[in-house]
Amino acid sequence: MGLFSKKEYDGEHDFPLWKKGGVCDVCGKSITGKNAYIIPVKEFYASDKYREYYLKSGVEKALSNPVLTRLNATPQQIALSVLESLSNLSKSDTSPAAVCKDCVEMFE
Ligand SMILES: [Zn+2]
After folding, report:
1. Ligand 1 centroid vs 27 CA: distance in angstroms?
2. Burial status of residue 101 (CB atoms within 10 A of its CB: 0-12, 13-18, 19 or more)
């Protein structure tokens, strides 16, 4: 029973289809139940490509955040704190991720 009780695949990717709405856990694009996949939480955080993406977008976000730039954090310090937040997320997150068609290749 539960989320994985009725897996459906589209034959294009190895992950079951995400049948609900919501937003992509990677890029934040809205998903409609036809264009997204379920990624098990372990595989989600184990993806090097996703970690790279998270780091890059996290550093970009931080660099455009006036509070952080006022603290004069170096890019290295910012990168470390972004990686730390990802590591914390990976420890506390227990539900599978919803990932859109554009992002699913990061996990294959
Ligand atoms: Zn996406």
Report:
1. 4
2. middle
